[in-house]
Amino acid sequence: MFIQLKDKRCFNCHIVKLLDQYEPNERRCTDCIKIIYGKLPFETKICCSCKTERPKREFNQGGKKFKDGLYPRCRLCSQASKKATRVKRPISSETARMYKERYAHRSPDGKLSYETRKKLAKWGLTESEYEKLYESQDGVCAICNLPETALGSNKNSSVKRLSVDHNHKTGTIRGLLCGNCNTGIGLLQDSVENLQKAIDYLTTHQTVDNY
Questions:
Q1: Would you call 72 helix, strand, or coil by DSSP?
Q2: Is 39 helix (H, G, I), strand (E, B) or coil?
Q3: Rounded to an integer, what distance in angstroms lies between the CA atom of residue 24 and that of residue 104?
Q4: Whether this model's pTM surpasses 0.70
Q5: Cα(138)–Cα(152) distance, rounded to whole angstroms?
Q6: Residue 123 half-sphere exposure, CB side, CA atoms within 13 Å?
Q7: Gap between the Cα atoms of 57 and 62, Å rounded
């Protein structure tokens, strides 16, 4: 499976479209924005917090309780407010774990957390596409042919998923690798020449050690 990073999956309709069909720094395609906020050019609205006139697409949808269906506070101010609240009232690890378990069912495929789906979306992958690639490799690393054994950073974390490896020049997805192999080729700058030098180096010293 080959997916180019010049394509991007719309956050709203989940369809992969070319980057020229997106506004700058916008996760939703232009078609979806037109449906939600009306025809281009976008109408504007004044944020109740920063008092700045902004396009309506910079406001989150708020439902029927607001006259225009949008929150009175712009997206930037909403994010700043949430960050300030987290600093004043940090969530304990126990509470975070409880919320993670409570809302795990909200992921579209019923398995992945929002963070994991966000990482996959970075490469234009859905969970089902990732699973197909995973099954095609029999659940093991494409280089060492071993399953991932590294654990997550949290105390009660399970084994990590195989990492998505891609060509840094073309953006083409090459396969799934374990953490060690992915880090290894990354430190060697994805260079075939550097990898061959490493092979020659190990082969030379292995021969010397055998004498």
A1: strand
A2: coil
A3: 31
A4: no
A5: 22
A6: 25
A7: 12
